[in-house]
Amino acid sequence: MSDICVVKERADQLVEAAERLFAAGVMSHSGHANLSARLGGERLLLTPGFVRGLRPEQLATVGFDGQVLEGELQSVSAEIIAMHSAVYTARPHVGAIIHTHSPSATAFAVAHRPLPCRTEPMLRFGQAEDVPVVPWGPRGSDVSVRGIADVLERRPTTSAVLLANHGLLVFGPDSPATAHLVVAIEESAEAEIAAASIGGAVDFPPGAQEAVRAAIAKATA
Fold it and tell me: What is the pLDDT of residues 111-121, one digit of tens each?
């Protein structure tokens, strides 16, 4: 597939992912988020700061070093390139990243509390462990980026992190899968908060992850 075709495909997927997130009701009131997709040669496609009504032509191609290679970015978006690049560098298998201020997940980020994996959608869509918290640092700063890289090194199997006092950062093989996980995490955070009023959420029984994997394998056989 030519580079032009790859860029178009990834751009269309990012637009569809943004639409799915709004349709699912997991976005902040402002609609602020940033989504990216990996391209070859240490490049990525990046959205503008607000993604309601996103169009493919609004995406910019940028290098991991922060250089804008095609399109335009406002400073509010340019300052988070390093955050996305750090994840792609640490996780070669990651093909897409989504950062949102999803309200319930952000509540855990503001409380500096890891989000437990206690719902089956989180197990099914790639987060079979607690979502860890990255210590606060100014948005896009070296402090913030180093904090993300440190957590990814210590938690090699996590597919998401909570950015303290900020929001949610999720990464996966492609934009559709990453959007599915954002929705699953936000639903799980809502359920955790709701369960607290009726005695608190309860952990899965031992072997739950293996049971879910077996059920998926049986259904897709």
Answer: 999 999 999 99
pLDDT digits (tens, 9 = 90+) for 109-149: 999 999 999 999 998 888 989 999 999 999 888 999 999 99
- In order of 86, 93, 104, 120, 158, the CA distances from 211 in angstroms are 33, 25, 28, 11, 20
